[in-house]
Amino acid sequence: MHDANFYGLIRLRRPADLSRPLIEWSDRLYSWEDMEKTSAHFAAILTALGCAKGDRVAAQIDKSPAALFLYLACLRAGMAFVPINTDYRVDEVEYLLRDSRPSVIVTNKNNVTRLKELTSLCGSRPVLTLAEDGSGSFSTDITPVSSKDCLCAPDDVAAILYTSGTTGKPKGAMLSHRNLAVNGEALRTTWDFTEGDVLLHALPIFHAHGLFVACHCALLSGARMIWLPAFDSTQVLAHLPKATVFMGVPTYYVRLLSRAELTAERCAHMRLFISGSAPLRPETFLAFQRKTGHAILERYGMTETGMNTSNPYQGERQPGRVGIPLPGVFLRVVGSDSTPLPCGQIGTLQVRGDHVFLGYWQKPKGTNFTRDGWFITEDLAFIGEDETITLVGRASDLIISGGCNVYPKEVEQVLNTLNGVVDSAVIGLPHHDFGEAVAAIVQAPLKNRPAAESVLNEVRTRLANYKVPKIVVFVDELPRNAMGKVRKDILRRTYATVFTMAGRCSLDGEQDSAE
Q: What is the reported pTM?
C-alpha cells in the first residue's frame, strides 16, 4: 500500500538543511530538526500511553511550537488530533470529550484539575500537561517507546475539528490525510509559497485557519514562520518588515487600519495579505489598499472542506468576491429543487473534490451530502460570468463575529434557562470591528425582567467570551409567524443600526457593558 501519511509529504518538502529556522517564537528559534525530533518524541510518548492508530488525542493547550509538534506527532502515529478552543468552558469541553472519546487529553497546568474532574464523569482517561516551552507531565513523566511513523491510507482520519450546526450541537468533521494533503498543495501552488517566505502567524491553532491553512502552506514549502501568541496590532506592525505573508480574519485588518504606523513603507517587504474565516467588507478592502498599496486576497473555505476558492495571486482581486475554485475543487449553485442554476442566480453552494471531509464523527454517513456526492455547504451564493463566486448569505443563522463562529441556538439555550426570561432570539448585527456582533433579543415581562448585566455575566460563566452577546435588548413579545417561529429577519431589520446608536444601551435603558 502506498503510504499516504500527510507527514511524509511534509518531510518530502522540508529544506535540505534541517538547521534552518522553522518558527520564531518569543526569543527562541525552532529549527526543522527540532520539529522532526520533538514530533517523533511526542509520537513515541503517545505510543507508550497505549494509543493506537485511529485513536483520538484531544488537546486544549495554548498556542506554541510544542502544540504544533503534538499535532504533527499525531499525524506520524496515525492518530486523530482533536484541538479544543482554549476559551471553551466546562460544559462545552465536556460535550466534546463525551463525543470524541479521546484516549488521552493534553492541556495546560491551569486546566488540568478541571479536566481530570470531567474525565471522571466521562470515563477515565489520562490527562497530561504540556506547557508553551514543551515541559509538563506529557513530555517528562512518560517514558517513550521506540516507534516508527504509521503507514496510513488516504482516507485514514488525521484530525477531527468540531463545528456546530444550527441546532448548536457541535459536530466533529473528520479530515483525512488525503484531505489535508490535496488542499495544502493547492494553496501552496495557488499562493506561490516558497522556502524564501516568512509567514507572520497571529492566528490561534485550534481551528482550520491557523492550524491547517497557515501552517500547511509553510510546512509544504520549507518556509519560515514568525509566531505570535495571539493577534496584537503592535506586535504585528513590529514584525511586518521581516515578513512576506500575513493571514488574518477581517477584524485583524480593521484594527490594523486604526493604527497610524500602518504605512506602505512598513509593508514594503510584504508580498501577500490574506483574509478569511468571515466576509471582508469592501470598505475594509479599499481602505487597506489605499493605505498600504496592497489588495487583500480573500478566500473561502469551511472546516469540512478546507479552502474552496481564492481570489487570484496574480491579477485583479475583487472586493466582495471570494474568487474561483482552487485546483481540484468543483463547485455548483443549485436551486430549491437541487437543479444547478445559471450564472448570476442565487442558490445553495455545493462542493465536491478530494479536499472534502469524510463526514461527521459518529453521524450517519452522507449527512449533508447529496446522493451524487456533493457536500451541501448551506451558504448562499451566485457564480459570475467570469466564474468568480460571490457569497450573499447563509442558509442558517450562523453568526461570524471576529472570525469566530457563533451558533445562536447554543446561546439561546443558556438565555432561556435564566429567571424572568420567557424566550430569546440571538442574531448577528453589523459591527464596525467584528463584522458581525452577537445581539440577544430577550422576551421578558417588565415586572420580572432581569438586569442586562446579570444576563451577560451568567452567559460568560457558561460560554466562551466570543459567544457572549455584545448587547441585550428586552422586548415584551418576539415577532412570530403563523407557526409560532420567531421572525429573525424582522429582528435583523429592526435592530440593524443598534451598534451605531450612542451608548449602545439595552432597549429598557440599562447600559450594555459587554464590549
A: 0.84
Q: Facing residues of 340 across strands?
A: 334
Q: Which residue has the cell 424572568?
A: 420
**The pLDDT value given to residue 483:** 45
CA angle 217, 246, 80 (to 5 degrees): 40
Each residue's pLDDT tens digit, 92-141: 899 999 999 999 999 999 889 889 888 887 777 899 999 999 999 999 98
- Below-70 pLDDT ranges, the chain: 1, 164-168, 393, 395-396, 481-484, 501-515
Cα torsion through 188, 189, 192, 198, rounded to 10? 10
- Look up the CATH number of the domain holding residue 86: 3.40.50.980
Give helix then strand counts, H and E, for the chain: 15, 25
| Residue corresponding to grid cell 484539575 | 113
Domain assignment of residue 194, yes or no: no
Q: Residue ranges of the alpha helices (H) in 408-451?
A: 408-415
The Cα–Cα gap between 352 and 372 comes to 10
Cβ neighbours, 10 Å, residue 232: 12
Task: Tell me the C-alpha distance between 194 and 271, whole Å.
Answer: 12
User: How far apart (Å, rounded) are the C-alpha atoms in residues 367 and 359?
Assistant: 7
CATH of the domain at 345: 2.30.38.10
DSSP assignment of 386-397: TS-EEEEEESS-
Residues 278 and 371 in one domain: yes
3-state secondary structure of 430: strand
Beta strands 306-310; 324-325: pairing state: antiparallel
Question: Which region holds residue 256: left if phi is over 0, alpha if psi is between -120 and 50, else beta?
Answer: alpha
Going by C-alpha positions, the residue among 136, 148, 125, 130 that lies closest to residue 44 is 148
Q: Say if strands 297-302 and 306-310 run parallel, antiparallel, or are unpaired.
A: antiparallel
Closest CA to 86 of 490, 404, 329, 382: 404
d(CA 466, CA 61): 18
